[in-house]
Amino acid sequence: MRLNEHPLLRFKRGREVTIYFNGQPVKAYEGEPIAAALHAAGIKVLNYSANEKRPRGLFCAIGKCSSCLMIVNGIPNVRTCITLVEGGMRIEPQRGKAKLPKEAKPPEFRDAKAVKADIVVIGGGPAGLMAAIHAADAGASVVLLDENPMLGGQLVKQTHKFFGKREQFAGVRGVEIAKILEKEVRKRDNIEVFLETSAVGIFQEGDEKLVLCVRKNKELMEFRGRALIVATGAMEKMIPFENNDLPGIYGAGAIQTLMNTYGVKPGDRVLIVGAGNVGLILAYQLVQAGVEVEAIVEVMPKVGGYFVHAAKVRRLGIPILTRHTILRAEGKERVERAVIAQLDENWKPIPGTEKVFDVDVIALAVGLRPSIELLHQAGCQIRFVRELGGHVAVRDEWMETTVRGIFVAGDTAGIEEATTAMLEGKIAGIAAALRLGIAEESWVKEIERAQRDLEEFRSGPFGRHVAEGIRKLLAGVGGNV
């Protein structure tokens, strides 16, 4: 299940170690998460649901759902998708709710290590990286947090070349952009990076924002800054169909993480649900990895992604079935088949049009929703704006929310592309430094330049609905929560 050859990627694996799944040895490599190592060994059932005891497998692979929770060295509820392997680890499937062993003593709040900076950035994806870089260049000291073991967010799994202008990395692959931005962050002495650090709460103490975090599942830490930028990205959406919880059903991003970041094949035969840009790009990334794509299923009457991506998929001979939906997944402990059907004008399945695909993977490329939980907890005003992907924080043109000193950027502010995430990160980073009185007024011109670039990027047919959503948000339309 491991990829040793790839037309675009080279996988540099760490030192080989042995972990133990249910007492049986499993080969793993330092630097990869537990779930990736188990998948490479053909182990897809990671836990069982609390009530029905149904098998569960990896779904998002970025630590934002509960599908991969397992018991590791006796400790339950470990997110194995972002927890790195260590030699000798003992791993067991978690069966519903589990208790801490008696000998385990959680750290106490008074023992939390404190770190201070002018600005704290939560999220090391394209928006967070650009926010940190520009805030630092504007004169601020910055702490950058990410719960994953590497910087880059979704960029680290994107092998396609970006569109746009040269200064927005046009013609550069996402995996390379991640390296460029990380290099820029690392060479700035006024940016301090903390990986494997999960933010669990935001609090106001005097004129400071306090971010309470857990680092490496062990250490409590608190980060303090006079301004905070939340760039926590988004998480995969789910759609209802029979057996949609079987192992082997993944969000599209999880497949990209396994395949493009860690060099692990998700399976042999895949059905993709969703013909937007993500589904189309995923299709030819799977082919690059030697995985057979049976078809792409799309409920709408036409393909939703860019023509260039759809044309590439069609040249590969992959059928795109519009006006179709998935009815059910079949299998016992994992996906073995998928059943689809054509839809009528009322979006109802047409009897007799069912098709059965023998697949071991179903990839859901059905959209994302912003990760706003921390913003909600911090007291930011939240609205539902359909064009932005769901619930988002109300913010102004400088990306500042209704809580003064808390800014937002990237998919957390509304679902778009990495290019717009980077531009919003730039605006938020500079704006935070200006609000604190650190940056000189000349930096306002950089914000205005980024705003013009955003407006231009959104002027195309795929950006107009986002622009409309932002107009609603700035005008106070969309409905309070």
Describe this structure in words.
The chain is an alpha/beta fold. It has three domains: 16-95, Roll (Ubiquitin-like (UB roll)), CATH 3.10.20.440; 111-235 and 369-475, 3-Layer(bba) Sandwich (FAD/NAD(P)-binding domain), CATH 3.50.50.60; 249-367, 3-Layer(bba) Sandwich (FAD/NAD(P)-binding domain), CATH 3.50.50. It is 23% helix and 27% strand. Helix 2 packs parallel to helix 8, helix 4 (252-261) runs parallel beside helix 5 (277-288) and helix 8 runs antiparallel to helix 9 (444-457).
Give the radius of gyration. 22 Å
Question: Which overall shape is indicated by the principal axes computed on the Cα atoms?
Answer: globular
- Contiguous uncertain segments of 5+ residues: 477-481
Q: Ends: how far apart? A: 45 Å
Structural class: alpha/beta
CATH fold type of the largest domain: FAD/NAD(P)-binding domain
User: How would you characterize the largest beta sheet?
Assistant: 7 strands, mixed
Give me the number of helical elements.
10
Kindly state the mean pLDDT as a whole number? 94
**Which architecture of the largest domain would the CATH scheme give at its second level?**
3-Layer(bba) Sandwich
Structural domains: how many: 3
CATH superfamily of the largest domain: FAD/NAD(P)-binding domain
Protein name: Sarcosine oxidase subunit alpha
Organism: Thermococcus pacificus
Pfam families: Fer2_4 (PF13510), Pyr_redox_2 (PF07992)
InterPro entries: 2Fe-2S-bd_N, 2Fe-2S_ferredoxin-like_sf, 2Fe-2S_ferredoxin-type, 2Fe2S_fd_BS, FAD/NAD-bd_sf, FAD/NAD-binding_dom, Metab_Enz_Cyan_OpOx_G3PDH
